[in-house]
Specification:
Strand content: 35-45%
Largest sheet: 5 strands, mixed
Number of helices: 2
Distance between the termini: 12 Å
Oligomer: single chain
Radius of gyration: 16 Å
Length: 143
């Protein structure tokens, strides 16, 4: 199935289950190409890579970054902290891939926003409230 920028949003991060908006992602590259994966407006840490995504990163891959190389036939695990609700973009930084819609959007909602349906949070009594969140994971296939 082809996905385009105007296709439905890939994922919704609801801070209900995400501490301070922290997400652990696994990018699974099932191609023979290296994909430089870039996440807009967010810095992240590389947690691991390899077939399981659990091999520790080397010295050049440590620290905060906004782009990481997803190597062929490997899992790349990152941890990002989304500090503000809103729409974010992530994509492959190869120009041909950007031009062919290898760019996706991600909605980050405040606590309870997905249940409220309007980006607001839902209180126990059903009214809207605000808040911050706990920790989740997401997985995607590159290629």
């Amino acid at each position: 199935m082809s996905l385009f920028w105007v296709s439905s949003v890939d994922a919704i991060v609801d801070f209900t289950d995400v501490p301070a908006g922290t997400e652990v992602w696994e990018v699974r590259n099932f191609t023979r190409h290296v994909h430089p994966v870039h996440l807009h407006q967010v810095q992240f840490e590389l947690l691991g890579r390899g077939h399981s995504g659990r091999s520790r990163p080397g010295p050049a891959d440590r620290g905060w970054m906004d782009t990481v190389l997803a190597y062929p036939w490997e899992v790349t695990r990152t941890k990002a902290r989304f500090d503000l609700p809103g729409r974010y973009a992530w994509h492959c930084h190869l120009l041909e891939h950007e031009d062919n819609e290898m760019m996706r959007q991600l909605n980050v909602l405040p606590r309870g926003g997905a249940a409220a349906g309007d980006g607001g949070a839902v209180a126990v009594d059903g009214g809207a409230t605000g808040g911050a969140g706990e920790a989740g994971t997401a997985s995607t296939d590159a290629g």
